[in-house]
Write a structure and sequence with these properties.
The complex is a heterodimer of chains A (113) and B (116). Chain A has 113 residues and is mainly beta. In chain A, 0% of the residues lie in helices and 51% in strands. Chain A contains no helices and eleven strands. Chain A has strands at residues 4-7, 10-13, 19-25, 31-38, 42-51, 54-57, 64-66, 76-78, 87-94, 103-104, 108-112. In chain A, strands 2, 4, 5, 6, 9, 10 and 11 form a seven-stranded mixed sheet that branches. Chain A is globular and about 40 Å long. Chain A starts with a strand and ends with a strand. Chain B is mostly beta strands. Chain B is built from no helices and twelve strands. In chain B, the strands form three sheets. In chain B, strands 2, 5, 6, 10, 11 and 12 form a six-stranded mixed sheet that branches. In chain B, strands 3-9-8-7 form a four-stranded antiparallel sheet, with no helix packed on it. In chain B, strand 5 and strand 6 form a beta hairpin. The mean pLDDT of chain B is 94. Classes of the chains: A mainly beta (113), B mainly beta (116). At the A-B interface, strand 5 and strand 9 of A face strand 5, strand 6, strand 10 and strand 11 of B.
């Protein structure tokens, strides 16, 4: 079945460490997105990519980095520069030119310990 | 930039009754799409309903319908015959159709509890 796989489901990070969240899709979608969800804040856009080897900053990109070396994969790295990384992270994708919304992954809960 | 406002953080409804969730948005564009997403306790985002701004007819999906008021920039979701499984967080979202970089802008969400 086609879909988006995010891993791991839960992730713990020590302060000062970088950590990478995985997002893989087999839907042949061109565009991929990373959102952060905090209580009372809704979903805020971190980074997005419309095509391989290209990506743009969203509204809260500071302290994060991404890559898009393959169409299927859009990993998100939470760097030590991100001061408050504890949150729920959602990856999503959509076909180019589609306005039917996104397909979402099941999310990764990141906790700084 | 577009903004989406959901001013009610929480609502509660008795099972089998009807509830309306409010959403307003701000944009200078004329053509766009609006969405309601549901996020149950599993945290999986599920598309509930979608409205095209150039269509005057309100979208409906079974027990879910919207009241789209373009001039007022209002997009409310009505859930009829509420069921326990409707308990979830609901997000209103806006998508522009201008350019190739169409992104979803979300409201802060509303937590809906359905009481047995």
């Amino acid at each position: 079945d086609g879909g988006i796989t995010q891993s791991p489901k839960y992730l713990f990070r020590k302060e000062g460490q970088n950590v990478t969240l995985s997002c893989e899709q087999n839907l042949n979608h061109d565009a991929m997105y990373w959102y952060r969800q905090d209580p009372g804040q809704g979903l805020r856009l971190i980074y997005y990519s419309q095509i391989v080897n290209d990506f743009q900053k969203g509204d809260i990109a500071e302290g994060y980095s991404v890559s898009r070396e393959k169409k299927e994969s859009f990993p998100l790295t939470v760097t030590s520069a991100q001061k408050n990384p504890t949150a729920f992270y959602l990856c999503a994708s959509r076909p180019r030119g589609s306005f039917y919304g996104y397909t979402f992954g099941s999310g990764t809960r990141l906790t700084v310990v | 930039a577009q903004t989406v406002t959901q001013s009610q953080p929480e609502m509660s409804v008795q099972e089998a009754e009807t509830v309306t969730l409010s959403c307003t948005y701000d944009t200078s564009e004329n053509n766009y799409y609006l969405f309601w997403y549901k996020q149950p306790p599993s945290r999986q985002m599920i598309l509930v309903i979608r409205q095209e701004a150039y269509k005057q007819q309100n979208a409906t999906e079974n027990r879910f319908s919207v009241n789209f008021q373009k001039a007022a920039k209002s997009f409310s979701l009505k859930i009829s015959d509420s069921q326990l499984g409707d308990t979830a967080m609901y997000f209103c979202a806006f998508m522009s159709i201008t350019g190739a970089n169409s992104k979803l802008t979300f409201g802060k969400g509303i937590t809906l509890s359905v009481r047995p």
